[in-house]
Amino acid sequence: xxxxxxxxxxxxxxxxxxxxxxxxxxxxxxxxxxxxxxxxxxxxxxxxxxxxxxxxxxxxxxxxxxxxxxxxxxxxxxxxxxxxxxxxxxxxxxxxxxxxxxxxxxxxxxxxxxxxxxxxxxxxxxxxxxxxxxxxxxxxxxxxxxxxxxxxxxxxxxxxxxxxxxxxxxxxxxxxxxxxxxxxxxxxxxxxxxxxxxxxxxxxxxxxxxxxxxxxxxxxxxxxxxxxxxxxxxxxxxxxxxxxxxxxxxxxxxxxxxxxxxxxxxxxxxxxxxxxxxxxxxxxxxxxxxxxxxxxxxxxxxxxxxxxxxxxxxxxxxxxxxxxxxxxxxxxxxxxxxxxxxxxxxxxxxxxxxxxxxxxxxxxxxxxxxxxxxxxxxxxxxxxxxxxxxxxxxxxxxxxxxxxxxxxxxxxxxxxxxxxxxxxxxxxxxxxxxxxxxxxxxxxxxxxxxxxxxxxxxxxxxxxxxxxxxxxxxxxxxxx
Length: 480
Ligand SMILES: *Cc1c(COP(=O)(O)O)cnc(C)c1O
Fold this sequence. Notes:
- The mean pLDDT is 97.
- It contains 15 helices and eleven strands.
- The strands form two sheets. Strands 1-7-6-5-4-2-3 form a seven-stranded mixed sheet, sandwiched between helices.
- The protein is an alpha/beta fold.
- Pyridoxal-5'-phosphate is lined by residues 87, 146-148, 151, 179, 181, 232, 234-236, 261, 263-264, 290, 293, 302.
- Pyridoxal-5'-phosphate binds at residues 87, 146-148, 151, 179, 181, 232, 234-236, 261, 263-264, 290, 293, 302.
């Protein structure tokens, strides 16, 4: 069994194993002609159930053969140009190489004595990101597992900065289309059930600042404390960007912490064409960025940035065995002092490899391409009488619904759209997402693949219309 330990005597085994795995994945990627096979959980579960984990196969080739059957064949492939569903990007090769390196060396970024250079690389990327945002000289931050954790940490700092014991008095303001992790964080942070004040959005799904001002005023009048405003720079559903400068002004006026959730919109930090769309982000107290959403990085790669490094102390605890207090005066850099996690992956290496090989402009150009594609797609949809499209894209999301002229019952149209999404998924020809707009079912393309073309968009729209028509035809038959 020792031959499986990665060390100086097993490098040949390591090389062969990893190469064999890379060959399989490369062959798979080259051969996938659809983003998905349409497999159902009922189809797949028995295959996985049948495997006895207490009877290992012992041999890498046999295990890879088995993996083909239980995972690789039926995985959902984000690199495919007709994967248009969620906020998943195709990944860039330098980042995948980084992933291979970081798991083989297996540094842990909690302390200097488990990572050395890894800690300094992460710090440099945090500084780089903070500079791109424009957070100023006192900024800092840390890599996290994802936007959910970044939002939680930002709101923890905001809560502590209020210096209030009476948690029931704290209020967090976020738009009605903000990410659900805001609600979850409020709960985890012990805030009351009414803590999150939901602010309405305008026609373009951006927070209404007049309504925000009104809510902040009401909060003050009631003797409550405005703990934070969460502005979303790139909503999950629409890619809409809240009016950051106006929100920053209101945060200053009412003494609220400004958190910008740029989990999706952070791609604009590298954009060559559209950076101005997130102007005002530099006034935030904290920012969430998900490189695994719009920097073409493998999951996980994410960070939380703060304007004032000192606020990170709210996440600091000292353990004698790990990061004793004296290390601070010895100037030993321990990232655990800033993190909610302890043992932590060196995810920063992926972004490092990406920036060193491609540069930020390379990433920004790819993100610009998907924004341009979304603008083209919006024109196609707006000109197509079969579809109703909402919200001209600020990033790369399109939300629309099939609306046949002959059908007037909105509930029937809902069912046709739901059916089309399901039928498309089952066919594996394309994968699209769905959401609700004003109580009605819509479909959604999240475009993050520069390889997707307008021809792909047109083809998938035709598939959707075909499935929806089939549903409506059969529904008519049922009624007769
Ligand atoms: C995806 C997303 C999150 C959550 O990020 P994870 O990395 O999935 O945890 C938070 N906010 C917004 C706006 C998002 O789109």
